[in-house]
Amino acid sequence: MRKILVVATGWHFSSHFYEKMSQQIVPDGWGVDYYCVAHRMPEDENTIKEKDGVRNFNEGNFLDELDQMMYEYPITTKEIEDFGWKFMLEENTVGDMECFNQWAEHYDYKEYDIILITHDDNFILSDKIFVDVVSEETELYKPLIETRVGRDKFKIDLIKNKNDWYFLDNGYSEEIPKAFTPRGSFGFYKKELIDLLPNNRFNMKEDGGEGIVERTGKTNSVGYDGIRAWNTHAGTFRDFLYSGLGELELVDKTRWLSKTKRVSKYCIEGERGFIRNFNAGENYLANLQLQLREIGWI
Fold first, then answer.
1. Is 179 helix (H, G, I), strand (E, B) or coil?
2. pTM, whole model, 2 decimals?
3. Which of 8, 65, 66, 74 is deepest in the core (most CB within 10 A)?
């Protein structure tokens, strides 16, 4: 049996996320294991009070309504485990792919064919994520490496999924300057890609000139600017995709589920805990409305 590993960073604790991910249809011949690598507890006072304003807000727009669905109730550790997740509490050192590094200190990634690394403030729109990710009938977007402009911009083409990709991200937008840079919020990594990483771990140590933000022992959220330095690690992984194998081979093995950043028919990526946040820009609202219309949500 082939296996999929799901590693979620436990910080915002969207009840909708943990329930909907656990309800994903498992493809024939596959198994799925779910791990929540938490950096604070769901029952922590900060965890609950940071989302109470969403739960108690009754006159919002559709973005606020999505956030209300995300945090319908304060989920508990037991409820997460009852949904089928294994719960791990680790040091709050850094975000994004660090949860995989921490998981890998206890388990062997080589037991899995595909690894999904995800934040827990993502709004899940479909129960066919895994079915479509492994299906050769699914259409994915591929960068055309010969069209590269500057460092990060490529034209893309829609192709059938031949399962020859190494990295599959949620969405790509040609029009933004850092088009190729992944967000680290919802991405699939083949075992073969992890094999290529130095020490089979993501490099989460570089500070990008902003200094390392250390939040060990802290359980309060600090907003977009408070951990902006953590965005450096998405760029570090991007640079690995450029240089990890010659002639942009890892770029050629990159795919996307949609041609809109942060949004696909499978997942809306939250921004520091909320769907309504616009700090990332990237025509987010227009792309979100377009995607929700296509699937009949608005």
1. coil
2. 0.93
3. 8
The class of domain 2-294 in CATH terms is: alpha beta
| Whole-number Å distance between alpha carbons of 67 and 51 | 9
Helix, strand, coil tally for the chain in percent (to 5): 35, 20, 45
Express each pLDDT in 67-126 by its tens digit: 999 999 999 999 999 999 999 999 988 667 899 999 999 999 999 999 999 999 999 999
Instruction: Write out the two tokens for 22.
Output: 């656990």
**Are residues 268 and 122 in contact, defined by beta-carbon separation less than 8 angstroms?**
yes
Give the neighbor-by-neighbor strand order of the sheet with 156-160.
85-89, 30-38, 2-10, 114-119, 186-190, 167-171, 254-258, 139-143, 156-160
The domain spans of the chain are 2-294
